[in-house]
Amino acid sequence: MRSEGIRSGPAGDGPSDRLRWNARYRRSAPDFTPHPLVAEAFAAGMVDGPVLELACGRSGSALALAEAGRRVVAVDVSDVALQQLATEAKRRGVAARVACVQADLETFVPPRGMFAFVLATRFWDAAVFDAAREAVSPGGLLGWEALALTDEDGSAVTSRFRVRHGTLGAALGPGWEVLLETATGETAGLRPHRSTRVLARALGR
Ligand SMILES: C[S@@+](CC[C@H](N)C(=O)[O-])C[C@H]1O[C@@H](n2cnc3c(N)ncnc32)[C@H](O)[C@@H]1O
User: Fold this and answer.
1) SS3 state at 185
2) Ligand 1 center from residue 202 Cα (angstroms)
3) Nearest 5°: phi and psi at 46?
4) Ligand 1 centroid, distance to 53 Cα (angstroms)
5) End-to-end CA gap in the chain
6) N vs C: which end of the chain shows fewer Cβ within 10 Å?
7) Per-10-residue mean pLDDT for the chain, 205 residues long?
């Protein structure tokens, strides 16, 4: 049965992702802290339009954006995370601006050129990054943070879940202005790790 307030997107073959993440989200309480990319996007200037957040989890970013008046489409495979997000959005009186969509990003394709800001944090998938880039409207922003693949990772030269710092900005190509690209040290969960973050603007297309 579908949870209240959560729409269903295309299902993929990610039931194991869903179960794994559901279990993690059941184990800990959310804190709904927005990601710094939200403040950085506002500081950079955001064109009018809705926001798309991919792999949103229990997103404080989606809540902050909705509280700032944006309509937000928040997509994740975890119905537990989305339910926690939807409940908090309702508590804050912004439920009408937060559309929670349960979907597997391996099969979910966002509409092209529609979003003033597309955000994904602590997530990496090259194909999803490409789709996210296409979903940004002219003049809109793409904000992304992923775990960084570092030299300390030894022989690992590629990783499905990590990307080397500098790759995100380079992958955007012409038609984009990279506003910031930073390597960050971060501690999330039990293990300290590094991440790489980019904020870029789509030039008129
Ligand atoms: C490390 S968490 C990041 C959550 C949030 N963006 C943040 O910064 O706290 C990764 C998120 O990706 C979601 N996820 C993992 N695989 C997915 C998939 N195939 N489709 C959609 N979401 C997925 C998980 O449910 C989880 O919420």
Assistant:
1) strand
2) 24
3) -115, 130
4) 10
5) 42
6) N
7) 65 75 96 98 98 98 98 98 98 98 96 98 95 98 91 56 91 95 69 83 86
For residue 57, how far is its CA from the centre of ligand 1 (angstroms)?
6
Predicted structure pTM score: 0.91
Domain residue spans in the chain?
7-202
- Best of 77, 128, 161 for a ligand 1 pocket test (most atoms within 8 Å of beta carbon): 77
Query: What sign results for the dihedral spanned by CA atoms 171, 172, 174, 180?
Result: negative
Residue listed under structure tokens 């994740």: 76
Compute the distance between CA of residue 143 and CA of residue 132 in angstroms, rounded to an integer: 10
d(CA 55, CA 42): 20
* CB 99 within 8 Å of CB 110: no
Domain spanning 7-202, CATH architecture: 3-Layer(aba) Sandwich (3.40)
- In the block, residue with structure tokens 């929670």: 100
